[in-house]
Amino acid sequence: MKTTGTAVPARDDEGHTSASSPVGVVRDGGPVSVSSDGQTRTAVVSLLVERGPATAGEIGDELGMSAAGVRRHLDALIAAGEVRATTGSGRHVTRGRGRPAKQFQLTAHGRGKLHHSYDDLAGAAMRRLRDLGGDAAVREFADDRIDAVLAGVETAAGAVTDTPDPDAVVETAERIASALTEAGFSANTRRVGAGVQICQHHCPVAHVAAEFPELCEAETARFTQLLGTHVQRLATIANGDCACTTHVPLAANTAHRIDSLPQTDAQLASATGINREDSR
Questions:
Q1: Which residue, among 89, 28, 80, has the nearest Cα to 54 in the 3D structure?
Q2: CA torsion, points 77, 116, 173, 258, in degrees to nearest 10?
């Protein structure tokens, strides 16, 4: 996500620009105003939805504000229970020797305040579908939906013969993340130990998936088919987590070793050196 903005000569004590007219930055082709507290916090929340956990410095860089100014708004969001601070890891740099940078991410409460179009209608339609066709109809709908989202993603090389190439698995995981992002899931991938994780930082159907887990189950099953290897969900937004995280092992012949893989989130976290929270 590339950010461009108007050059600003100075910032005030709040971290806002001191130009005579409201100054904003442009993200994804649209202006984001930071001319008031409410607008700034909305911009911060939007950024955390789009890219997941971020440091105060990263948020400031995106919004054209000082890190100190950003922290004031983050403190207010934390006090409201909408954002929480975690220890940085993964793509984020550390501050000094052995001191990981602090990241900020939306809580389930903060995510729940976002606008979700047609949630009630979608939920009612799914319940009616179940009444008319039973659980099988819901599962078929869920399968058709994720097939449509990932229609442009080709199966990883070797997946059909249960011998997927690790490099092909990584490439396919990245294509899955791109397709999910185009569908509104704000997804990316990250390498973790001997595997790769597909992280979905936003779910446009989270409220419906909380009642109909078949939507999440269909995603996981389709990931397994495309990647040719067993995958395991570590977390889901529908269950109250801050992201949907799917772990994909890259060891050779993993499709033949499902029984030997960790069968619980705790076991998988131990094997990969991560925990449920840090996976996001």
A1: 89
A2: 90
Q: What is the pLDDT of residues 116-137, one digit of tens each?
A: 556 788 889 999 999 999 999 9
For residue 265, give the amino acid letter: D
Helix (H) or strand (E) holding 148: helix 119-149
CA distance linking residue 155 with residue 81, whole number of Å: 41
- Output the pTM of the full model: 0.56
What is the three-class DSSP state of 54?
strand
Q: β-strands 24-27, 30-33: how paired? A: antiparallel
Residues in the chain, overall count: 280
Query: How many whole angstroms separate alpha carbon 202 and alpha carbon 211?
Result: 17
Residue 107 structure tokens: 């809580």
End-to-end CA distance of the chain: 19
CA distance 102 to 145: 37
User: Per-residue confidence at 96, pLDDT binned at 50, 70, 90?
Assistant: low
